[in-house]
Design brief:
Shape of chain B: globular
Strand content of chain B: 5-15%
Structural class of chain A: alpha/beta
Radius of gyration of chain A: 21 Å
Helix content of chain B: 25-40%
Oligomer: heterodimer
Structural class of chain B: alpha/beta
Low-confidence stretches of chain B: 1-8
Number of strands of chain B: 9
Number of helices of chain A: 14
Strand order of the largest sheet of chain B: 7-6-5-8-9
Largest interface: A-B, 22 and 19 residues
Largest sheet of chain B: 5 strands, parallel
Helix content of chain A: 25-40%
Distance between the termini of chain A: 22 Å
Number of helices of chain B: 12
């Protein structure tokens, strides 16, 4: 299969060019048009984005999302690869589930699926899952995301096993006993609202514990790889920064919602803003943004967490945590931070950076590289219209906002996975 | 009795191999040849330990090791007193010290001790003042098992010098692995310890002549002997492993794995075996297996150890 995409700019250049892709690879730039010719509409082409943290809810929770809707949403957001989380029903702790997900995703033609598998059986945190089999089945990461790995000893065993398999363990770093029944950031807003708070220390304490586990193993000559998910507090980032200075195998991700929203958003008691870890303060958001600039935050991830509207319309205590916005992540980041971070840095945080976390080859646009591409329209302003989302979760905190940087074309494995109508 | 500077220190106990020179260890192995000959005679008994009382003090269940030791002692004409903690005052709360001090009043001349706690054999020696043979303490040491393993390998290849022994399994909790890792390099052999990362303590890599790997193929490459260790079911509840099946698929010693070892490599197992878990039937029963030979050698080694510690004593 051959496609030629014309009339676009390669990221970092202002010259219009074309690219030809054939059999899943980039054949070359500015070649004679071949195969299907697609107009890039003057957009900017970059490697397709990589998401390390999405909830696609299949199996078992397909009223919220399924592989088809989730991977279509990802492709519409410019993503070529999506790591899905295992807190499904049943939990992805069985190699057969991994295989069936991969088989199904492979037929859909949207973004490429890379399943994460549970670190422990049933994500119960008490006994390791069959990590070797899960890797053999195609799992790319181990995590009990959604759970908090209270049993440090089991996490340590999991880190050791995963490292022996060349794999990363990612963690939802939050001390459940400190979090207690907190549903939003503990602070002035939670106090004013009378809503149980979740202290920043719950995250920092857990990150500190986990770093010491990594340090202890490293001191024994046993390097392991820990990836801290959706970091939300300045203090926890400080700890990760320090761990990196010590040369430890610790990486972290930050979500655009923690950069763009604060606990002030909850003053209306709207559970659409209820996320885990919770929205923090502006000072935290500023600190995290600085971490993106200076490299102490490794990459961006969305924690795309779809729920039904009915679930999110419950009160703050009862509503589930999470927002779904994989279709908005790039336009949101580009619109808010294009001026401060710059286009190339944002693209890097969504492409090469997550690849480095996973130990995957860094995506490039060179001839011979896999043809995973996205073309962004960096000029046209468009309103966020949730009704148009491919995701089943057709609501968002940013509804009605005007953003730029929308993807117009996503190519995965040499095939069109999304094309704006 | 205190050894003087001019007198060569002769170990009075076998707790581990710390005080043992390669020469003395080799002498035990050499002497086991003689003991095997004794076992082949119509009358399998020598008078070497006549008049001595040996107590097998087993605070942890073990039928095979106790039987092996008791037979070894009897074949050397010792009187054997069996103390099984399960049916004794220990189950009523008596301390190890009190138990040993009581037993010593029966004029016990030497103890053979098994205990679930590392270091217990040292305490028995301390409380009794008598020679003690450690028959397995906690996860620390099981020296006669290592000696019989070394003897079995030497029997096969005439010498341990330059030989490699791969030990695969639950290294973390294995006193057999620790004792072998201590003994074999003293006798010129290399040891490769292999198991899942969770069952392979990195600190063991600090021992001379010992290397660690989580890759069983790498472990057996160049090995002259491959020892499978029993995988204990309780490791599952401890969260060390995903499943027994996963362990078996990855770490089982079987004929396919043995194809990566030296062509004449032998298979060892300290027993009891979980067939189809840590070892396959083709490896356990095949022509490479020396597992029953280990049992036979075990008795000869224990006779040799008793002889070294108790005959010609000061």
């Amino acid at each position: 299969m051959t496609i030629t995409i014309t009339n676009m700019k390669r990221i970092g250049s202002e010259e219009l060019t074309s690219v030809t892709v054939e059999n899943g690879l980039i054949k070359g730039w500015n070649l004679a048009e071949e195969g299907e010719v697609i107009d890039g509409q003057g957009g900017t082409v970059a490697p397709a984005l990589i998401e390390l943290h999405a909830h696609l809810r299949e199996p078992g929770q397909t009223q919220k999302e399924d592989l088809a809707s989730g991977l279509a949403a990802a492709a519409a957001g410019g993503y070529g690869t999506v790591v899905c989380m295992p807190n499904t029903s049943p939990v992805i702790d069985d190699p057969a589930i991994v295989r069936s997900l991969l088989e199904k995703a492979g037929t859909l033609g949207f973004a490429r699926l890379k399943p994460a598998a549970a670190l422990t059986r049933g994500q119960q945190g008490e006994a390791l899952a069959e990590l070797t089999y899960l890797k053999q089945a195609g799992a790319v990461m181990f995590t009990d995301d959604g759970r908090t790995n209270e049993n440090a000893r089991v996490l340590r065993l999991g880190l050791e096993t995963a490292a022996s398999l060349g794999m990363v363990v990612s963690v939802h770093a939050e001390d459940a006993s400190l979090r207690a029944d907190g549903v939003m950031n503990e602070g002035a807003v939670s106090e004013a609202l009378g809503v149980p708070g979740n202290p920043a220390a719950a995250e920092a304490a857990r990150v500190a514990r986990d770093i010491e586990i990594v340090a202890g193993l490293a001191a024994q000559g046993r390097p392991v790889r820990l990836h801290v998910q959706h970091l939300s507090t300045a203090r926890a980032l400080d700890l990760v920064r320090d761990a990196k200075k010590r040369g430890l195998g610790v990486s972290c991700e930050v979500c655009p919602h923690h950069l763009t929203l604060t606990d002030e958003a909850l003053r209306g008691f709207d559970a659409i803003y209820k996320v885990a870890p919770p929205l923090r303060t502006q000072a935290d958001a500023d600190f995290l943004l600085e971490g993106l600039r200076d490299g102490s935050v490794d990459c961006l991830a969305t924690d795309h967490a779809p729920h039904t509207r009915a679930e999110k319309e419950r009160d703050l205590l009862d509503a589930p945590s999470g927002i779904a916005y994989i279709e908005l992540a790039f336009p949101l980041m580009y619109t808010r931070f294009g001026g401060t971070l710059g286009l190339e840095k944002i693209v890097e945080l969504l492409t090469a950076a997550p690849a480095r976390v996973m130990g995957w080859p860094e995506p490039t646009l060179e001839a011979g590289a896999p043809a995973d591409l996205v073309v962004f329209d960096l000029k046209t302003e468009r309103e966020v219209r949730p009704a148009e989302f491919k995701s089943k979760a057709k609501f968002t905190p940013w509804a009605g906002e005007t953003l730029t940087g929308w993807p117009v074309l996503t190519v995965v494995d040499g095939k069109v996975a999304y094309r704006r109508d | 009795m205190t050894a003087t500077a001019t007198k060569q220190v002769r170990p009075r106990h076998l707790l581990d191999f710390q005080d043992w020179s390669p020469e003395r260890l080799t002498a035990i192995l050499d002497n086991a040849d003689t003991m095997l000959q004794v076992l082949d005679r119509p009358v399998k008994k020598v008078p070497a330990l006549q008049g001595l009382t040996i107590c097998t003090a087993f605070f942890e269940n073990s039928t095979r090791t106790r039987t092996s030791f008791e037979l070894a002692a009897r074949r050397m004409s010792a009187d054997v007193m069996t103390f099984a903690a399960g049916a004794s005052s220990v189950s009523k709360g008596e301390s190890l010290r009190d138990t040993i001090e009581v037993l010593t009043q029966y004029r016990v001349d030497a103890y053979i001790v098994r205990h679930h706690a590392s270091g217990a054999a040292h305490l028995v020696h301390q409380y009794s003042g008598k020679p003690v043979i450690n028959a397995g303490d906690g996860r620390r040491a099981h020296p006669t098992q290592a000696l019989l393993d070394a003897y079995t390998v030497r029997q096969e290849f005439d010498s341990l010098d330059g030989k490699t022994v791969a030990i695969i399994g639950d290294i973390r909790h294995s006193r057999v692995a620790r004792s072998n890792a201590e003994l074999l390099p003293k006798l010129g052999a290399k040891v490769v310890l292999c198991g899942p990362a969770t069952l392979l303590p990195a600190d063991l890599a600090g021992l001379p002549g010992v290397t660690l790997t989580t890759d069983p193929v790498q472990a057996v490459r160049g090995a002259h002997a491959v020892m499978a260790l029993r995988l204990q079911q309780e490791r599952m509840s401890g969260g060390y492993l995903g499943s027994l099946q996963e362990y078996a698929d990855t770490y089982q010693v079987n004929e396919a794995l043995m194809q990566h070892a030296e062509s004449g490599a032998i298979v060892l197992h300290p027993g009891p075996m979980n067939r189809d878990v840590e070892i396959s039937a083709d490896a356990a029963d095949g022509p490479r297996s020396r597992i029953l030979k280990q049992v036979e050698n075990g008795q000869a080694i224990r006779m040799s150890v008793l002889y070294h510690l108790l005959v010609g004593r000061d």
